[in-house]
Amino acid sequence: MPFVSDLQFASIVPDGLPLSLVGIVATVVIGIIYSVLTKERPLAGFPLAAIEGQSPKKSWLFHGPQTLNEALAKYSGPFQVMTGTGPKIVLPNRFADEIRNNPSLNFQKAFLKLTQSLNLVTDDLVDETTAALRDIYGSSPEWTTTTLKDGVTDLVARLSSRVFLGQDVCRNERWLQIAKSYTVDSFIASYIMRMAPSPLRFFVYWFVPQGRSIRKAVRDARQIIDPEVTKRIAAVDAARAAGLKPPKTADSLGWMYEVARGRQVDYPASQLSLTMAAIHTTTETTGQAMLDICEHPDVAQQLREEIVQVIGEHGWSKNSVTKLKLMDSFLKESSRVHPLNLSSMNRYVEQPVELSDGTVLPKGSRIMVAANFADPVTYPSPATFDAARFLRKRQEPGQEHAHQFVTTTPEHMHFGHGEHACPGRFFAAHLDKVALCHLLLKYEWRFVPSEGGFPAPDTFETGFSGSRTGQVQFRRRQEEIVLDLE
Ligand code: HEM
Ligand SMILES: *[C@@H]1O[C@H](CO)[C@@H](O)[C@H](O)[C@H]1NC(C)=O
Questions:
Q1: What is the reported pTM?
Q2: Closest ligand, as measured to the CA of 118
Q3: Whose CA is nearest to atom 36 of ligand 1?
Q4: Sorting pLDDT into bands at 50, 70 and 90, what band is 26?
Q5: Residue 468 to residue 181: CA distance in whole angstroms
Q6: Most exposed among 133, 167, 219, 366, judged by the fewest C-beta atoms under 10 Å?
Q7: Residue to mutate (ligand 1; options 252, 348, 422, 464; most atoms within 8 A of CB)
Q8: With 60 as the cut, is the pLDDT of residue 103 above it?
Q9: Would you say 448 and 145 are in contact if contact means Cβ atoms under 8 Å apart?
Q10: Where are the transmembrane segments (predicted)?
């Protein structure tokens, strides 16, 4: 989920919120009466976290990281926080493994298809990275200033759309616009809706500007995606009629069709959900990696050497990308030192659960687990950025697979942990590595010299989101090996 800081939020609302003054006043008044009557009550038996001088709700919304860290230090066990939608229990990360094995639906199966076809999609990713970088960054040998988030979002939207929907759709301007804005619009709409009392939320949805762009996005997505689905079904039918095997499609329309086995699928809606889960998170991860590249030029150079050696020798394939082990370690360290979210494993308690320390999680409560990316026992000198940290761990006997970027542990929950850990992480890591190979060999990167750094990220609850306006500089360099396919 993306975030808006309180300041940005304030600047979003007055712009063209098409509610009349009377409507606003009425909503506020009803809202106040409602919230007094139904005051969100803390759960019994769990200390409620808040920083000094703040209400628990404001403390969590606007000072999430500080609230979390203070409470972890103060209470040795579980505590609760007051979120915008009621209380939530926070468990220290030593409970992560107890939580992970709670039985649930296996939704992950649908993603196996994507993970299994990573080899098939590598050429598509390489091809699209070549084309996208040409469009986004061009080939000037002069240092050029750019807004980091814009370029990275464009790149990630194109790469993931290429794999999810194929070449035509991924270069469709309107689809790219939807892919980039749908998640943020949904988030802002839900943020505004949460401020209204729940019986009025549906009503508010019809009036916030983001609600309108969401509805338009859904209509336009149907117009773009439906013909693509029809085309594919026609191609399959034609092949079958001619006694041939249907064309093998690597994209997600193809694998959703196969996984569905004849059941009805709402392809446009599925694509919008995929987009929501995939684009924002992958953009944040890639953007942070680019900042670490600017900050550690020596690491950038080591990564280049590894790319030249590995891709130079083996060419492009899923396996060669897997051999980029310093890059894998670098990405894991980047997300450890600058986590996307200090909490993870959002779960709803369907039946009371007793934890090993005797705590009982009440039925109907919501829980999450506090991350601990800086545990000094697991990570010596946790504050130091050490790009090869996980590579060295992998070189210890028997540890080859325990410290990959996609491995989840209670001490590294970038992709969550357990049954509901991110099923898209194998794909996201693969995409990220292909993109970084091109970004590193084709360009040099640095902070804008006159600024000497990059603005701090925005926060929302315990989540971080890279600055939307922060700039960096790049210039074209000559890649040592041929990365493009043609
Ligand atoms: C670097 C990029 C990404 C990050 C950091 C990320 C992170 C996460 C996290 C933290 C969760 C919650 C896990 C938990 O609660 O245990 C999650 C869930 C999920 N992610 Fe990702 N994700 C990324 C990319 C993707 C991509 C590319 C896709 C789709 C191809 C995807 C699809 C999903 C889905 C469908 C879920 C829900 C899983 C469930 O509820 O069982 N993610 N992701
Ligand atoms: C951070 O993670 C928690 C727990 O999974 C989740 O409830 C929250 O929405 C996330 N925050 C953001 C801004 O993504």
A1: 0.87
A2: 1
A3: 422
A4: low
A5: 13
A6: 219
A7: 422
A8: no
A9: yes
A10: 16-37
* Residues 282-324: tens digit of each pLDDT: 999 999 999 999 999 999 999 999 999 999 999 999 999 999 9
C-alpha–C-alpha distance, residues 354 and 361, integer Å: 6
Secondary structure letter of residue 79 according to DSSP: E
| Tens-place pLDDT, residues 377-389 | 999 999 999 999 9
Same domain, yes or no: 174 and 298: yes
Query: Which pLDDT value is given to residue 101?
Result: 65
Query: Are residues 424 and 311 part of one domain?
Result: yes
Q: Domain of 16?
A: 1-39
Instruction: Collapse the DSSP code of 445 into the 3-class scheme (helix H, G, I; strand E, B; otherwise coil) and give the result.
Output: strand
Average pLDDT, the chain: 87
Domain shared by 175 and 265, yes or no: yes
**Do 155 and 129 form a contact (C-beta atoms < 8 A)?**
yes
Stretch 33-52: mean pLDDT = 80
CATH code, domain carrying 137? 1.10.630.10
- Closest ligand to 85 CA? 2
Q: Which atom of ligand 2 is nearest to the CA of 463?
A: 13
Encode 137-176: b = buried (16+ Cβ within 10 Å), e = exposed.
beeeeeeeebebbebbbbbbbbbbbbbbbbeebbbbeebb
Query: Atom of ligand 2 at shortest distance to CA of 460?
Result: 13
- List ligand 1's pocket residues with C-beta within 6 A: 107, 274, 277-278, 281-282, 285, 340, 344-346, 414-418, 420-425, 427-428
In a domain, 486, yes or no: no
Let me know if residue 115 belongs to a domain: yes
For the chain, how many structural domains are there in total?
A: 2
Establish if 205 belongs to a structural domain. Answer: yes
Substitution candidate for ligand 2 out of 346, 372, 460 with most atoms within 8 A of CB: 346
- Whether 305 and 453 share a structural domain: yes
Pocket test for ligand 2, best of 85, 186, 194, 368 (most atoms within 8 A of CB): 368
